[in-house]
Design brief:
This protein is about 40% helix and about 15% strand. The protein is of the alpha+beta class. A hairpin with a 2-residue loop joins strand 10 and strand 11. The chain starts with a helix and ends in a 26-residue tail after the last helix.
């Protein structure tokens, strides 16, 4: 089978809105030059679009015209390596998605411990941030919560009472195993995130792990997060005000 036919068959089986690289096309290294020409022909036909160098997507059609893939899908080629997650979206984009802010940032921050993700998605700049622990598909959602706790004071347009409720609900839905992992990861985060996690966890019936969080904090340090006791009753116990 010719390279062009192989690529067209592969792309025809992809769902609309899917992003991909050459590596996902099932071609060998020597076939890349022919693949590049085949890709260019498909772009001219409008069957696929170029997202950035070496990254493409199959556009999704709707009654209102062509739709760009959602942000997570556009960034997928940069969040995974050899099929394994190595990064996740954080910062303003994450906090907007979590419902913590209504503001949409001009830049997207991507956290990873093994790779610096720097690219451009349309007019949006993607900037790298070093994650506190290695990122996997089994822990990135825990790191998202910890990032929100870490940045609590600086999240723009934040309603603190609503934010505490959102974060408390997310944490309360975690399994016992994920809760333990989150406590372990929190010890690698700045103390303000550790303290806020401890204060939220203390609201639950399950108290295991709180002592390890306490031991990691300086008892003489006060964390000024602008959280009133009425919003988070356990805040004073963790030197949060």
């Amino acid at each position: 089978m010719k390279v062009a036919e192989k690529i067209e068959r592969k792309i025809s089986r992809m769902q609309e809105g899917t992003t991909f690289k050459y590596q996902q096309l099932g071609i060998d290294q020597p076939e890349y030059p022919a693949a590049a020409k085949a890709i260019e022909r498909l772009i001219k036909k409008g069957l696929i679009k170029r997202l950035s160098t070496g990254v493409f997507y199959k556009p999704k059609q709707s009654a209102f015209g062509e739709l760009r893939p959602r942000e997570e899908e556009l960034l997928k080629p940069y969040l995974f390596q050899d099929g394994k997650r190595i990064a996740y979206v954080t910062g303003g984009s994450l906090y907007n998605r979590m419902g913590l802010t209504t503001q949409v940032p001009k830049t997207i921050k991507v956290a990873s411990k093994v790779k610096r993700v720097t690219t451009k998605i349309g007019k949006t700049q993607v900037k790298p941030i070093k994650s506190y622990v290695d990122v996997t598909n089994d822990n990135y959602f825990l790191l998202e919560i910890l990032d929100a706790l870490k940045d609590f004071k600086t999240i723009p347009d934040l309603d603190k009472k609503s934010a505490i409720t959102i974060l408390k609900n997310k944490i309360s839905k975690l399994s016992e195993n994920d809760r333990s992992k989150m406590i372990r990861y929190a010890l690698k985060y700045p103390p303000r995130a550790t303290a806020l996690l401890g204060a939220i966890l203390e609201l639950s019936k399950e108290k295991s792990g709180l002592e390890s969080l306490k031991k990691n904090l300086n008892p003489l340090t006060t964390y000024r997060l602008g959280i009133k006791k009425e919003t988070l009753p356990t805040a004073p116990k963790w030197n949060i005000n």
